[in-house]
Amino acid sequence: MDLQTLTYLVVGATFALYIGIAFWARASTTGEFYVAGKGVHPVANGMATAADWMSAASFISMAGLIAFKGFDASVYLMGWTGGYVLLAMLLAPYLRKFGKFTVPEFIGERYYSQTARMVAVLCLIVASITYVIGQMKGVGVAFSRFLEVDFESGVMIGMAIVFIYAVLGGMKGITYTQIAQYVVLIFAYTVPAIFISLNITGNPLPQLGLISTSADGSGTFMLDKLDQVVTDLGFAAYTAQKGTSLNMVMLTLSLMIGTAGLPHVIIRFFTVPSVRAARSSAGWALVFIAILYTTAPAVGSMARLNLMNTIQTGPVGEATANLKYDERPQWFRNWEVTGLLKFEDKNGDGRIQYYNDKNKAFAEKAAAWGWKGNEMTKVDRDIMVLANPEIAKLPNWVVALVVAGGLAAALSTAAGLLLAISSSISHDLMKGVFFPNITEKGELLAGRIAMAGAIVVAGLLGMNPPGFAAQVVALAFGLAASSIFPALMMGIFNKRMNRTGAVVGMLVGLLSTLIYIFWFKGWFFIPGTAMAANTPDNWFLGIQPESFGAIGALINFAVAITVSKMTAPPPDHIQHLVEDIRVPKGASAAIGH
């Protein structure tokens, strides 16, 4: 069966499964729409959380960044997994004990202020919309290849699919859909990784294949071979650190605390029946997440090696060592249709020269060979995971499976984010602030309308994202880190923190991070509007926009603590509430109180 037909069958079958589950588990009450009735089993919730967590950034983009950034991209692995541990230990159990539907609802009651609740909604919407933009980029990449259409059309089709099952099912439908999506995405990620690891190293476990010798009998380690291939073409060594240590530390911290502040992940712990179940589901989720995250480094490095070896078919510098453009493989032609892979024959020889023409020493050598610049004018990082099975010449069913997995990852997280946005608008703003007497039916309708509006906004912005999917997601984590995380941490562990400090801290943290991002990325993501060149030389202390969330969080903490010390302390009942949140259930009886 040809690839196109097989892809339609596999992807169509998975979509039918998701939509069928959404109809079966559709929400009929606000409790089911927001928190699935608080009756989800910890193992099932752990699997759903893993799918919610492992977005297009994890499935499609992270390995692509690892493929091209090498060692420097390890911060995404450390930051995202470390942040999940932080969330599970410091926030999830306490927020579950508090027992509310949403993060802004917790902030509003903890800081005894509707203003604090509205500011939290603002922070949530800004971070979540930015995050959904990254998911829409991933959806567009996958659909553009799957349907062989342009990227923008792929985004629009993805918007329609998300609308059908997310708006209908609410948290109840999304939870059970995400369980199915986790099974699809983890199978789709690991199966081709096993095939490719066997081909390159002879080891079926990608985690071990990464540190194994090549299967060609040379005795050369796979990573050493990759280092040699890329340095021969003027690129920096794959395993070498290229960025500054400070920037790597700040990006890791930003991703970690941003993870712990993401409302769409936190809300998953409100769906289980008890605090103990919240802790258990957090542990299960980490197990399910680790399967993909320990595989990603091997996927990225092997994808880069396959790409380079496909184009550079012989010793560097030989006239016939570069692939003829007319003889390019089918996968190359397929991705050219999407506009995410582009070639320009700069020297007119009909062959593909792919090298680092920014390396002056190598560029001089290349000029002597008749090369006139890097001819791969665009290799979008987000195509690497989806293209890798085709590059490696794996069976068509594996290629189709990877497409289905990429879509599952993007759609599962997009649904969770859209639910967080809709619940903040319908539950926190409409019912909590503006229309407290709204009926449950009216609140449910408002939530669905808000979700539909968020889909449209995110899709339109996703057509012109400010970076690769993982980079856009990193910006969202920075925004959550600088605004929501400090308010949650101080709300649980600092009973002296008052409403004025929390509100001012959230606003200053959010605005400082937004200004830094927009300064280098462009206002409202409009091309050509950046106020300064987005280069390390212009960054503050060499800290890239994706890393600034950690600085924004420090600003938030400092401002909030200072303001709270200068203003009246919280009422006594709020301070007792904070103490009660931190005390495990049953502890008072155990110590005789």
Explain how this protein is built.
This protein is mostly helical. It has one domain (3-303, 388-587): Sodium/glucose cotransporter (Up-down Bundle), CATH 1.20.1730.10. Helix content is 69%, strand content 1%. It is built from 25 helices and two strands. It has a two-stranded antiparallel sheet with strand order 1-2. The chain is globular. Residues 523-530 and 586-593 have low confidence and may be disordered.
Helix and strand arrangement:
Blueprint: H1 3-24, H2 30-35, H3 42-53, H4 56-69, H5 74-90, H6 92-98, H7 103-110, H8 114-146, H9 151-201, H10 206-209, H11 222-231, H12 245-260, H13 263-266, H14 275-293, H15 296-311, H16 330-338, E1 341-342, H17 360-368, E2 378-379, H18 384-391, H19 396-434, H20 440-462, H21 469-493, H22 499-521, H23 549-566, H24 572-582, H25 587-590
Antiparallel strand pairs: 1-2
Helix pairs in contact: 1-9, 1-19, 3-9, 3-14, 4-8, 4-15, 4-19, 4-21, 5-12, 5-14, 6-14, 7-8, 8-9, 8-19, 8-20, 8-21, 8-22, 9-19, 9-20, 11-15, 12-21, 12-23, 15-18, 18-19, 19-20, 21-22, 21-23, 22-23
Overview in brief:
69% of the residues lie in helices and 1% in strands. The protein is built from 25 helices and two strands. Strands 1-2 form a two-stranded antiparallel sheet.
